[in-house]
UniProtKB/TrEMBL annotation:
Residues 319-339 are annotated as: Disordered. GO terms for molecular function: 4 iron, 4 sulfur cluster binding; metal ion binding. It comes from Paramagnetospirillum magnetotacticum MS-1. It is found in: Cell envelope. This is Fe-S-cluster-containing hydrogenase components 1.
Length: 339
C-alpha cells in the first residue's frame, strides 16, 4: 500500500479521535474545574444609582481630565465633548433610555433613565483570562483591573472576551493602546479616588470599599419608596448627604452576580435590559469556564496525548503496511520513496 499525505493525516486523525474518546472516558470529571474567583477581601469599587443621576455628565468631564483623554466631537459642532459610546478616547459615558413622552424619570413607560458605562472591574475578568501577555491584570489587593500598555501586543483578545463590551482599541493612532477605566488607580496612588465619584453632584456615582458599597446597596433597597432618605455624595461615609424621596428600585443589583460578579454595581428604577447592560449572563464567570477547559485539555495532557496517539497510530500503520506491501511512499514522494 502507498501512504499518501492524505491517508497519513486521515489515519493520524482517526487515531487521535480514538485516543481523545479514551482520554475523555478516563479523565476524572471536574478534576481540573476551577470556580469563579471572588472579589478580594479589600476590594474597592463604584456604586452607580441611576435614580440619582441627572445626566449632567460631570463624571464624563472629570474622567477625561483625570485620564488626559481628548475631546470627542460626534455632532460636528467642535465645541463639546460628545461621545456617544465608550471609545478609544472615552472611558466613561452616560447614556439615556427614552420611552414615549419621557415625562417620568426612572420609569419604563413614557419615561427616561440614565446609565453609566465604564469598566465593571469583574471579580474574575474575561479580559485578564484572555490576554496572552498579562497586559490585563487584576490586582490581588483591591481587585482593580489594570492595563499595561508596554506589555500589550495589540491582539485585542480582551476586546473580544469582555462580556460588557468595555475595552476599546485605539484605531486612529500610530501607537494604539486599549482604552478602559482603571478605576483611577493613578489617583489612588496620590491618596485620591475615582474622579467620576468625586465630581458627581448628586451621589449617583460613589466610590468605596466593596463591603461599604454592599451595605449602602442593602440600605437603599430596604427604603420605603416615597419616604425621605439621605444619600451620600462621593463616598458612603463622606458625611456629605442630601435628602431625597426613596425611589422604587427594580429588584435587581446589576453586577452582584452577573458573569461572576463585578466591583462596579448598579441600582435602577428601570429594568437593566433597557439600559444597555447585557442581561442573562451566567453567575459563573466565563474565565472559570475557559480556564477549566484549557486545564482539562492541557493540564490533563489530553491534547498532547491525542496528537501523539494519532501520530503513533499513523506511523505504526505505515510501518505495518510497509512491511506488508514493501511499498512505502511517504507523502507521495516523487521518486517513489524508500524501497
Ligand atoms: S456626574 Fe453624577 S449625576 Fe452627573 S451624569 Fe455623572 S453620574 Fe449622573
Ligand atoms: S468589564 Fe470587561 S474590561 Fe472590565 S474587567 Fe470585566 S472583562 Fe475586563
Ligand atoms: S474611575 Fe476614573 S477612569 Fe474609571 S470611569 Fe471613573 S473617572 Fe473614569
Amino acid at each position: 500500500m502507498t501512504i499518501t499525505r492524505r491517508n497519513f493525516l486521515a489515519t493520524a486523525a482517526a487515531g487521535g479521535t480514538a485516543a481523545a474518546a479514551a482520554c475523555a472516558t478516563l479523565a476524572p470529571s471536574g478534576a481540573q474545574a476551577r470556580e469563579s474567583h471572588q472579589v478580594p477581601e479589600n476590594a474597592v469599587g463604584l456604586l452607580y444609582d441611576a435614580t440619582l443621576c441627572i445626566g449632567c455628565k460631570a463624571c464624563m468631564s472629570a474622567c477625561k481630565e483625570a485620564n488626559s483623554l481628548p475631546l470627542e466631537d460626534n455632532i460636528g459642532e467642535k465645541l463639546w465633548d460628545t461621545p456617544l459610546e465608550l471609545s478609544g478616547k472615552t472611558y466613561n459615558v452616560i447614556k439615556i433610555y427614552q420611552s414615549g413622552t419621557m415625562e417620568n424619570k426612572d420609569k419604563a413607560e413614557n419615561g427616561f433613565a440614565h446609565i453609566k458605562r465604564s469598566c465593571l472591574h469583574c471579580a474574575d475578568p474575561s479580559c485578564v483570562s484572555a490576554c496572552p501577555v498579562s497586559a490585563m491584570q487584576k490586582r490581588p489587593t483591591d481587585g482593580v483591573v489594570t492595563y499595561n500598555k508596554d506589555a500589550c501586543i495589540g491582539c485585542r483578545y480582551c476586546v473580544a472576551a469582555c462580556p460588557f463590551g468595555v475595552p476599546q482599541f485605539q484605531y486612529d493612532t500610530p501607537t494604539p493602546q486599549i482604552a478602559k477605566c482603571q478605576l483611577c488607580k493613578h489617583r489612588m496612588e496620590q491618596g485620591k479616588y475615582a474622579a467620576c465619584a468625586e465630581s458627581c453632584p448628586t451621589g449617583a456615582t460613589i466610590f468605596g470599599s466593596y463591603k461599604a458599597l454592599s451595605e449602602e446597596i442593602e440600605r437603599r433597597r430596604a427604603m420605603k419608596p416615597g419616604e425621605p432618605n439621605l444619600f451620600p455624595r462621593r463616598t458612603p461615609d463622606s458625611g456629605d448627604t442630601h435628602e431625597k424621596a426613596a425611589p422604587e428600585y427594580v429588584d435587581y443589583v446589576y453586577g452582584q452576580k452577573d458573569a461572576g460578579g463585578t466591583q462596579v454595581r448598579y441600582l435602577s428604577g428601570v429594568a437593566f435590559d433597557k439600559l444597555a447592560l447585557p442581561m442573562g449572563l451566567p453567575e459563573r464567570s466565563y474565565a472559570a469556564d475557559s480556564e477549566t477547559l484549557q486545564h482539562t485539555l492541557y493540564g490533563g495532557m489530553i491534547l498532547p496525548v491525542v496528537a501523539l496517539a494519532g501520530l503513533v497510530t499513523a506511523a505504526w500503520k505505515g510501518s505495518k503496511d510497509h512491511h506488508d506491501d514493501d511499498d512505502f511512499d511517504m507523502f507521495d514522494h516523487p521518486e517513489g520513496g524508500h524501497k
